[in-house]
Design a protein that fits this description.
The chain is an all-alpha fold and 63 residues long. The protein contains three helices and no strands. α2 runs antiparallel to α3. The chain starts with a helix and ends with a helix. The relative contact order is 0.17.
Length: 63
């Protein structure tokens, strides 16, 4: 997802999205450890999306 798409979401939606991404990241890390993960780039994408969400939430908190 692009940062502009995250900025359009409300705080509640961002927190929901954060929980979903954390769950996905856990599952992907487990698959990677077992050796079943085909696309390792997905891990990086999810980590970036989480960082974007954290940044946007911190910006809104500072306002």
């Amino acid at each position: 997802m692009k940062p502009s798409e995250f900025r359009e979401l409300s705080d509640e939606e961002l927190e929901t999205k954060e929980a979903e991404l954390k769950d996905q990241l856990f599952k992907l890390r487990f698959q990677n450890a077992v050796g079943q993960l085909e696309n390792t780039m997905r891990l990086t994408d999810i980590k970036r999306d989480l960082a974007r969400i954290y940044t946007i939430l911190k910006e809104r908190e500072a306002e």
